[in-house]
Amino acid sequence: xxxxxxxxxxxxxxxxxxxxxxxxxxxxxxxxxxxxxxxxxxxxxxxxxxxxxxxxxxxxxxxxxxxxxxxxxxxxxxxxxxxxxxxxxxxxxxxxxxxxxxxxxxxxxxxxxxxxxxxxxxxxxxxxxxxxxxxxxxxxxxxxxxxxxxxxxxxxxxxxxxxxxxxxx
Length: 169
What we know:
The protein is of the alpha+beta class and 169 residues long. It has helices at residues 10-20, 23-33, 35-40, 71-91, 123-136, and strands spanning 43-47, 52-56, 97-108, 116-120, 140-149, 155-167. The radius of gyration is 16 Å and the shape is globular.
């Protein structure tokens, strides 16, 4: 590591992972901070150093008139699979970092008629972008992908979500 570079606090990252995987604490956090996601059944399945997996069920609260999961509910689960790790890394930064979704592209392949699991496997790139934002003092954008599959592994939808991060003085 170069002298003077700002890095993220790994203890805070580990603490956040533990918090996020606590069923009651994280559910309460979702209910408070993202009530529409919580109501529609968006949940965290797994948060690890290299990937984040979220889910959304096909249910009465997430349905559309075509007997499948409403696209906005799929988008919430996809965004959470990229946003939750971003929040984890931003919270572990020694200085404030602002974060914002600046773009989203989606491809819908198949109707979602059951549980859809979204996986973002680009957490190391997210972490590097946030560290770059801390060190360069200008906005850094990164596009990360999240793919949604059903329980059989069939691709339901894929999302490309662009985040912007900027370190604050």
